[in-house]
Amino acid sequence: MLSKLLKYDLKYMLKNMSIFYILSIFFAITTRILFNLEQSIIINIIGQISVGCMFAMLANILINTMMRSWVRFRDSLYKDEAYLTHTLPVTKNELYNSKFIQTLTFFFISFIVILISLFIAYYSKDNWLLLTNYINTITTGLDMNTSFFIIMFITLIFLEVFNAIQCGFYGMILGHKKNNGKLGYSILFGFIIYLLAQTLVLALVFVYGLFDSSVMELFKTTTGNIDVGSFKVLAIVASLLYLVIMFIMSILCKKELNKGVNIE
Questions:
Q1: Residues 6 and 102: beta-carbon distance below 8 Å
Q2: Which of 47, 82, 169, 212 shows the smallest number of beta carbons within 10 Å?
Q3: pTM for this one?
Q4: Closest CA relative to residue 190, chosen from 92, 85, 66, 64
């Protein structure tokens, strides 16, 4: 039954997100074409408009992935659609798992579309060489493997944003247990949970630093005296902590859902 739930959730997200995917790639292509034409005032102006539209679509992809995930979660569990959802022979855990996988899937797709759009618009041997040289300069200064740096950078951003989405889920579950002002409480609880999650990550990193002097140095030294090599350990520890917190939060969300749902 989880696969059937997931199919409908994915269809909903695809219907709402496909327009942003198509437009971002479309404007990436027009940007590529316009930048390769002989430049005149008009071509340059149109090219800059195309660039602006492309980046607007990229921003909308990230924002709408978050917003649509929250809207889908609320509509299927607490709005009119919930009257049908909760009559299905599925558990609350399966309902939550479906929303979790749907969000994870489209968040990953959004990242891929953003990278493809940027590649189409800007890729050239010179730009690639410039980018790789810039990254190599950073990684050399940090005494860090380039592939490791890129993977950890993308991973941390991914986990950070996905954690924020799940905090929104948890806030919504708690907010809809109130009799009035459900939306307001959902936003408030979600924001508080997000702050607590961020504080917990920082606190656990500090605790880890008690056993690893290289990480603890980040809490003690000034900016100019930081041992940049310690960022390797910090990036790995922070990523693992985010995964643990997200796992625990998913358990808490399911626990609260299983206590009962108040449909609006």
A1: yes
A2: 212
A3: 0.80
A4: 66
Q: What is the pLDDT of residues 48-107, one digit of tens each?
A: 899 899 999 999 998 998 888 898 888 888 887 777 777 777 888 888 888 888 888 888
One-character DSSP codes across the chain: -HHHHHHHHHHHHHHHHHHHHHHHHHHHHHHHHHHHSPP-HHHHHHHHHHHHHHHHHHHHHHHHHHHHHHHHHHHHHHSTTHHHHTTSS--HHHHHHHHHHHHHHHHHHHHHHHHHHHHHHH--HHHHHHHHHHHHHHHHHHT--HHHHHHHHHHHHHHHHHHHHHHHHHHHHHHTTSSS-HHHHHHHHHHHHHHHHHHHHHHHHHHHHTT-HHHHHHHHS-GGG--TTHHHHHHHHHHHHHHHHHHHHHHHHHHHHTT-----
Report how far residue 70's alpha carbon sits from residue 190's, in angstroms, rounded to the nearest whole number: 11
For residue 94, give the nearest of 74, 70, 69, 77 by alpha carbon: 77
Q: How far is CA 117 from the centre of its chain?
A: 18
Instruction: Work out the end-to-end distance of the chain between its first and last CA atoms, rounded to an integer number of angstroms.
Output: 25
- Evaluate whether 249 touches 197 at the Cβ level (below 8 Å): yes
